[in-house]
Design a protein that fits this description.
By secondary structure, this protein is an alpha/beta fold. It is built from five helices and six strands, in the order αβααββαβαββ. The radius of gyration is 18 Å and the shape is globular. The N and C termini lie far apart (65 Å). The N terminus is likely disordered.
């Protein structure tokens, strides 16, 4: 009986670790900010890659559709970025630039019902260079 419990525990651990590993290595779905804002439930819980204007600031980390949406304070045209404190310093140079963001999109964040059109738990951000 003890051996069976041990085997079941190992099988469960391997299944969970395989799931976690494949999620970390999965390729994100390329989507536009417009599409994610228009159909948030279609992307809820999925790994996405979005391009937009990035602003990082106190309680206002977001990826906007356009720079003007940030300038004119239109958070309905943006998704909030959940960076985590450890990533904040690493991403500081991206603020004020158009950027590519990879992360898990959440249509509704229980802890933040703010004005944004969803939240992206950021995995990576990189500046989009101009042509």
């Amino acid at each position: 009986m003890k051996a069976r419990s041990c085997v079941l525990t190992i099988v469960a651990f391997l299944a969970v670790s395989q799931s976690w590993s494949s999620e970390r290595n999965a390729e994100p779905t390329l989507a536009s900010v417009v599409r994610v804002l228009a159909t948030p439930d279609a992307f809820d819980g999925k790994l996405v890659r979005l391009a937009g204007y990035c602003h990082l600031g106190f309680e206002s980390d977001a990826l906007y559709l356009h720079r003007e949406d940030y300038v004119f304070r239109l958070p309905v045209n943006a998704v909030k970025l959940d960076l985590g404190e450890r990533k904040r310093d690493a991403f500081a140079g991206v603020s004020g630039h158009y950027a590519l963001v990879d992360g898990t999109f959440l249509a509704r964040a229980a802890d933040d019902p703010g004005p944004y059109g969803g939240v992206v738990r950021v995995r990576s951000i990189e500046v989009l260079p101009p042509r």
